[in-house]
Amino acid sequence: MEFLVLVIFVLGYLFIALEHTFHIDKAASALLTGTVCWGLFVTGVHEVPSHLAADFESFKAGLTSVPPHALNYFLEHRLLHHMEDISSILFFLLGAMTIVELVDAHEGFSVITDRIKTNNKVRLIWILSILTFFFSAVLDNLTTSIVMVSLLRKLVDDKEMRWIFAGVVVIAANAGGAWSPIGDITTTMLWIGNQLTSDVIIVNLFVPSLVCLLVPLGILSVTMKGEVSRPEASHDVKDPTSPGERKLVFIMGVAGLLFVPVFKTVTHLPPFMGMMLSLGMMWVITEIIHRSKNHEDRDQLSVIGVLRKIDSASVLFFLGILLAVASLQEIGHLITAASWLRDTMGNVYAINVTIGFLSAIVDNVPLVAASMGMYDIAPATSEGWEGYFMQNGVFWQFLAYCAGTGGSALIIGSAAGVAVMGLERIDFVWYLKKISWLAIAGYLAGAGTFWLMFH
Fold it and tell me: For residue 234, what pLDDT is reported?
């Protein structure tokens, strides 16, 4: 049974990685993989796995009477335990995506983008990359890449040059997301899982992430020449909002997202609670400022209207893949993998650099979820190897950096890359030739910077 679950997981992963070849959405493959893995595990297990024996005894001790199918009740309890963590991530994502879509519906991002006037290639790529780097930390790398591609279409007319800019946007978005607790789903998972605290993420990962971006920008500053040509602007589109409304919603959106870590620090409640509070405030205020408009305009600018645009398939993808990884954790495969990595490499830096490169081939979400399942948070007094795995330990910090930025090496290696690939129809091989070496140079430079800082 254990081997069969692993086979199903690998097959599911194959369909996820090759969704464009099989023409099956990765969310469908992930949901099937997650549910089938759990179904096989629960129906195929006849005795509690050895690593769960102590938990099983504690579970039975808490029951008033032990039912005939105690093991099945215990496994259901374990599933619901995982769902507690998974739901926190999904509701956090849903709230964040809704806030960003609401700002975009009000054209709030034009508050910044309208101020970009230069046509010089080098100057423009620096401005856009720095904007992407900090936008990604506040919003998230997926949303930021979508926003920046929309901006690029207004700023760069030539397709080949726009692809180069878009490739650098992928690098900048992933680098920016790595040093913020809300900038990348993998960093968010480590934050919500209490492996890392928000202050450590920001302070310790900012410099390596910045180096990861500056190295490709430095190379392009030498090789790029000339100016970009802008497409002809259209003046026939009616603005859905006034300048004052755009500024108000933009400020509310950014402030609401920045408020989430503060809320968690003050209340110690899960981050999704702060995100839902921010969303609720924006919902009320936007309903008030648009109450006098006609129904059609008000519907497009309301949270209810925006919810129709949310990429719910991505939310279901995360649900499925996190369920699948949880099943491997319960069976014990992740403990075996952790022992193999430790015995083979014996170095937390080598392990994480490897995970980073793997995230360019397979999705970084299950890789980080697997790492969280492979290694427990060590006590604060731990020393030696175990000391790397205590809360805010070097392993978790470097994992956040590597998993967040390593995916830039291939365009299918990150959510930001997949989004840009879909929007701009960028060819996989073109990205491999033109952008991958820049991304790898930046990734290794940032990894080296982290090693020098904390080794």
Answer: 56
